[in-house]
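Bit of a strange request maybe. I'm writing a small parser for structure token strings and I need a real example to test against, not something I typed by hand. Could someone generate the tokens for this chain?
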Amino acid sequence: MIKVRTRIIILLPVFFTSFILSGCWDTNEPERMVYVQGVGIDFKDQKYTVYAQIVNTSTTAKTEAMGGPSPTKLVVGHASGKTLNQAMFNLYSSSQRRLFWGHLSFIVLTEKALKQKNIQAVIDQFDRYRETRYSIHFYVTRDPLTEVLRSLPPLEMSTYLSRLGDPEAAYEQRSVIRPLNLRELLIALNEPPHEAVIPYIRLTKGTWETETKPVRIIEFSGAALLTKNELLESIPLNQFKGLRWTNNDLKREEITLTNNLSPISLVVTKLKIKKKPLIHAKTIRFQITVDVTTTLSEIKKPEQLPKIKQEAEKLLSAEIKDTYLRGLQHNTDILRLSEVVYRKNLKTWKEVERNGKVPLTADSLQKITVNVKIIHGEKQKMKPTL
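Reply from user aminoacidic:
Good idea to test on real output. This should exercise your parser:
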């Protein structure tokens, strides 16, 4: 009898544990969910409209060639509501399966949505939800969101490899404008000067073609200057060329020299920038020093390297100055000089700041020093090939 009791006492915990370890009862099988890759947000007639890009997971990797028609790669759905959350719940009404947001990689907003001071609602909605991540990239556009979200990468590539879903790949080849994710957006808007630069996108027309027809591809065409409360301005790339030379994360960019030279092309492979505030009483001036490492990519006629170096330094300095002045025209601290004072001299920043920004004038940027170093001529010497 004692042996029976002992066995029962030993087996009871094992018996009850088997119920706990029998499986995860609240999980959803992957093939029974619908995955949202991208979201578009518009605001019209006092209502939010949410566009959801749903991807076909069976087409995200290469498979063996099969007969029959090609499967649909993605579907775009949309719904409206008085609040962003209401619009999403209205979208759930027509969804055939549960929408999973854990793979959301980008959000595209229209200018109309940003002009209505809706960036706070957007951030609040996606920052609170447990499935979303801080790696979501943000973009602004004027184009119809349905067309933007239906744009596919060429050559039957996975939808996950689109310019919107994976912007870092193209950025490593040409660093024209830095991608911005949710974490970086929160930092930019919560710290001086409380402004962010979001990539501006559009659909290209006639740039790329297949053997049968032209295709419309996403292109980075400018930048949207944004505060917590409003969209300040959307400007094309050619109006803020100097912004790329103030980015320590620059991977690769091109310089074309034509002034006093035959056309010469340099490729920037490394950049280091230092911003120094010069404080006298409550007057603040700034010095910017940029060290640039380049390679000689194209040269048609023999030119002296010191002259090439000098012209490159003049060009970069002029572009940085022009970008700074254009930022002042739009009432924005586009080079984030206010943040330098905030980091290095908090006491002075508190005395002079207005809404988180240091008052800036055309004379505030006192000096720009650019040092260009040409290290080699890629596969050739530093002279014309022929």
